[in-house]
Every structure is written in structure tokens, then in C-alpha cells.
Amino acid sequence: MNSLSLARRLSGFWLLVMLALMVWQLPKLALNSNILALFPDADSRSAEARVEQAFSARFERRVVLLFGADDEVLARKTLPFLTETLRQCDCFEVAAADSQVGLLDQFYRGHNASLLTKAWRDKLSNLTPNQLVDQAQRRLLTRPGGMSAQSLINDPLGSLSDFSRATAPSTNIRLDQAGNAYISLDERRYYVLPLELNGSPFNVALQNRAREALARAASRWADLPGADVLKTGALFYTLAGTDQARQEISTVGAGSLLGIILLLLLVFRSPALLLLAFVPLITGVLAGLAVSALVFGAVHVMALVFGAALVGVAIDYSLHYFAARMATGRQWVASEGSRRLLPPLVLGLATSVVGYLSFMAAGFPGFSQIAVLSSAGLVTALATVLFCYPSLLAKAPKRAMPTYLQRLVRGLSRAHEYILQPLARPGWLLLVLLLLIGWLSLAPTSDSIRQMQRPDPALVQMETRVRESLGAGAALQYVLLQAPSDTVLMHRLEKAAERLQTLQEGSVLDGFDALTRVLPSPRQQQENRALWQSAVVDAGVLEELAQRLQLTDSAYQQMLDASATSNTITLKALQPVLMGRPDLPLYFVEEGLHYSAISLTAPRELDTIKQALAGVDGITLVDPVARTDRLLQHYRHSATGLLLLAYGVIALLLARRYGAPGALMVILPPALASAVSLALISALGQALNVFNMMALLLVLGIGIDYTLFLREAHSEQLGTRLAIGLSTLTTVLSFGLLALSATAAIHSFGLTVLIGILLAYFLAPLVVLARTTTKA
């Protein structure tokens, strides 16, 4: 069995497997638009990961809508219809915190002595017993709705109610006479409608349902005079991101297909070949999606963007086949032509797959998807060509390559080689490459995640306006505390809260939220109980109050029992309440250690905060953004190492066929193209990042195809030169369009590939010139 027959049989088997996989996976294909899914997760067992997962779950599903209008009467009448419209959609549910709001009040009952605000500690220390009784009597007699026996028994002085109110986070939200929540913004009333998504905002199907429900509500509100709708929440950023990804997928895919159609019709002048060219494209993309769905469960939209761009690479196999057939003309014999094309096609696939699969070693989940999707797609595309084309294109073409096209290709090739002739010295090329690499080591770099995410400025402005008007909003940075016991943890939280309070008063940050808001430390509780005992119980405040209110002996005894000094409230006892109220500060136990997190609001001087907290044991100021930046820097360095490793592996692979000098000349043109492309991008004023480096793996995988085909062409230079030129155009059309992306990461990737591929095409003939020079 010859090599072509073996390749066709293996191709047929591969296609059968891919067809079965498509039938199985594609009907249940799921998409993911979460940009953070591109990056590796932190260790899910670490305390930081658990805190950030809790924060993410708390905030990413929250949606807040503000409805403003000129006519408040009409607005109040319309508001119930809006609420019903939104909650009819299964995409929204009532916020969990709203339905569990009474849990904390129930837990506090019976703990009057332990739970005292600072204001109440001052009162008990400074007021006389008669003054305390007078104050309590006025409060009970002037209480809105009258005095209830239950409130008198459970909270005779009102200290517990004041503590409960103090535990609520500060907010600018008020209630109107009908109980509707509103805020005042620009001297106008905006009604607040908080909702919670019934799932992840990155779920595309959920996004679509939420979009429709929000559009119906906004349409109903728009009928009011002066209607205005403000909104905030991760949902709106994911909606914008999904829309942008769809638009870019459409642009890249449509641009690539249109360019391919025009090129094929212009050069080959055959509608049949045009249709045939799309067979490996379609099978390649569908197979890539199916394999990605099998391996990862869901396909990231960025992988889809590159899947759309994959057509510009997969078409190369068809172009080489069509060009070789047309250049051979009436002498075409399918078996002989396919046999000549087999080595460069397989070598080109192998080097491309090495380039793509190198993405996986970087550890980026998103890039791993791109690697798997692209590799599976290219293998399937080539398998389709090898299996189908020898039979479908067995006949010689009716028309040979037009004379004008032959002259054009030969003329451009001569001019191309004439320009490159002075560079056709391996030693000279290697020296230039080393000098460029040395210069690039000094080029500016950027590893900022904020630079790579550019959300819609209008959304950012609206969210800032809403959050400031609501008087809420935590930053990404937080303080993590750990301790060997809950008692020690509460002591450390108390120290940290005192220092943060000083910073808040000094305008270093706007606020913070710690467990001390809802539970004093054991030491503070003990001091509170001692103060309550001496200033209230022993001083006879309750007895005097009961006499003034003419309580029965039974009611007075109940009041005494309810106000008796209680035991210390532990975090263990509070934990079930904290679990039922995800809006409260976080507390958990992991491997015997007790943890809590203090969220920060608008921290302006992180170094000052870090210095202020120094000296408190078990405390860490965590900045996820800075950590991600460091991670990106690490992966930029890793990508550089992977690039060098990929060149080394490919060089060893090719050395067996061409020898060391020959292999060096095959890899030098794409290597030089990569270095020059980075130098040009740096000269344009753009800092280099990890996505530029990842793009160079693709420049290697595609660019080396050009030198391989020229190296293997021998006397078939005409068809090879035509195919490489067409391949460059299609690749530039597909990946080059990514440079237009509004997403900084995709833009960096696309721009690097665009410049790198053009340079790789320009430098590819060096492999032929160097060979000629060596022989001479």
C-alpha cells in the first residue's frame, strides 16, 4: 500500500469519526461569553478563591433598574406593571436577600445586653437611670403605630432596634407612601427595582430572555412623559460583549468568505471549484466545534471568533490542490499530483498543529479551546481534501493556467527574489534575528487586564452614576483575615475595623463592610453585658420603667427574662444566618482555619491601607486586578518560552528531512517575520502583551507552510507560488480582520498575525534563494 492510499484510508476513518461526533455534540452546543473564562482559575481550594467566588456570586447576578419620569402619579401606577412584566420572565427572581431580611432580627432577639452600639454605650455610661427611663418612656409612647407588648418585652429601651438598624449597609434609598423604593437623582425621583438573575449572566440563552423582558418593560415605561431608565449589573456588560462578539464573528466570517469567493472565481473561474472549496471549510469548522464541545463542555465566543477566522487557513489545502492542478493543465494525473502534494501538505499540517497546540501549554483555558478547535478543524479539512479531491478532481482541467496569470506570477516571483537576493545568507539572517530579539527585550510591555478590557464607556458612565446615587458599591480589592479560632478572628476583625474607620475618616476610602457590623467581638460583648448589668439591671431602670407603664408582675418578669444578660454570641451560632444572607460579610472555616473578608468601597490609596493594617496578624490586602496583571506577565514570559520551544521542536522535526542547515532556512523566514512584526508594533507606540506573543505561535504555524511548500516544490514553482499568494490573501482577510476588533486582546492578536503573515510571505522565498546560493 503506497503512502497516498494509506493517507486516504486514514482520512476516511477520521471523517467518519468526526461525522458521528458532530451528530452527537452540535445539537446541544453551548456558548460561553465570560471574558474571565479565558484565564486560568485560581486554586479553587484557596481562601482567596472562595472569597472571590462568593463575591462574584453575590454581584454578578444582581440587576438594578432605576425608572424616572416627570409625572410621579403615573409613574407609581405604571411601576407594578413593570415589576410583573420582568418577573413573568423565568430569567429573573426575587433577590434572596430580600426574602431573608428578617433572619438577622430573629437571631438578635434576646441578646439586648450583648449587642450595643457605640451611641448606646455612651448613653449607658453617661446618663442617669432616671434619664434612661425618661428616654425609653418617650420612645415607647411616641412610637409610630403605637406601643406593642412584644416590642416592650423584647426591647424595652430600644437599644436592640438601634443595633439592628446600624447593621444595615448605608444607602440613599427611601420609601414613598406606597412602600416603593426610590432615590433622588438630579432633583428627580427614580424608582428602584432590584432583581436577581436566575442563573449566570454569561449564559447566552438567559441573556436573550432577559433582553426581551427588559425591552418590554422599557417600552412600557417609555410612554410616560420624561421617561428615563438607568441600569447597572454584570448582565448589561455581558449583553454588550455578546453582541460585539456576534458582530465580529459576522464580520470576520463574512469578510473571509467574500474574499475567498472573489479570489476563487477570479483565479480559477469555476463555480464548481468554488463549491468544492467550501466542503473542507464546513467540515473543518463543524468538526472543530464538535471536538471543543466534547472536551470543554461549552465553546467560548472568542474560540468562535477564531473558528470563523479558521476558514482563511483551512482554504490553503484546497488552494494548493487547485493551483497544482491548474498549473499542470492537460497533463494532470490525480494520483501523481496528489502524491507530490502529500508531503508538504502533511508537513504543513504538522507544523500548524504544533503551533496551535502550543497554546495549550500556556495554561489559558480560552486559548486551549482555540488550540483544540483549530487543530481538529485543520486535520478534518486536510482529511476532506485527501479523501475527496483525488476522486472529484481526477479529470484534467479543461483550461490550463491563463497566460496572463502565468506571466503575473512569474514576474512577481522574479521581482520578489530580486529584492530578497541581498538577504539570502543564513548567517546574515541569523544575526539580524538576534539583534531584533535583543532590541525587543527592551521594548515596552503591558500586562494590565484593564487595558485588555474596554467596556462600553456609556455603560461605565451609567453604572458609576447609579452606584453613586444608590450610595453603594464595593471595589474588587478586599481584606482577607484568618485565625486559628472564631474568637481570635473576631478580635482581629475588630482591630482591622478600627484602623479602617480611621482611614475612612481621612478619605482614604469611602467605606468598608466587616463582620463587626453585625456582631461585636467576644471581648466587646462581655464589656457590653457588664455595662448593661450595672447601668440597667442593677440601677433599677427596668423596674422603674415597668412601674411608670403600670405593667403587671407577669409582664415585668417577662421583660426581665428577655433582658437578662445572655451568653456570648459565637460566629458558629451566627453562621447559618450568614449562609442565608449572602449580602452579609463573609465567614467560613477551611482546613481548621477561620476566615473572613472585609470588602472595601472606593479605596484610593492601597499602599496607605496596607501600611495601616500592618501589625495585625493573619491579615492580607488582596488586589485581584494586580494579581491578574502579574499572572498575565507570567504567561507573557511563558508564551515567549513556548514560542522558542515550538521553533526548536519544528527544527528537530524538519532536520530529519532537510538536515540542520536546511531546517534552519525553513524556520528562519517566519522567525524573522515574527521579530520584525513585534518591532513594527512597538514602533507604532503599542506596548507588547501576552496576546502578541500568542499570535506569534500562529505566525509560525502558518508562515512555515510557505517555506515548506517552496522547499518541496522543486520544478512545480508556478503553482506553488500562486497557491502561497492566494493563501496569504485569504489568511490576511480572515485573521487580519481581527485587528479591527474593539476587544483589545483580539485586536492585539489580529494585528500581530496580520503583519506577521505578510512578512512571512515576503520572506518565504529566502528558503529557495539560500539553497541556490549554497549550491553555487
UniProtKB/TrEMBL annotation:
Positions of the Membrane transport protein MMPL domain: 159-400
Looking at the keywords, is Metal-binding present? no
Source organism, top-level taxon: Bacteria
Question: Where is the chain membrane-spanning?
Answer: 249-268, 275-296, 302-324, 345-364, 370-392, 423-442, 635-655, 662-684, 690-710, 722-743, 749-770
InterPro entries cross-referenced by the UniProt entry: MMPL_dom, Mycobact_MmpL
Entry annotated with the keyword Membrane: yes
Q: Which species expresses this protein natively?
A: Gilvimarinus japonicus
Q: A single Pfam family, by name?
A: MMPL
Q: What name does this protein carry? A: MMPL family transporter
Q: How does it sit in the membrane?
A: Multi-pass membrane protein
Keyword tags: Cell membrane, Membrane, Transmembrane, Transmembrane helix
Subcellular location field: Cell membrane
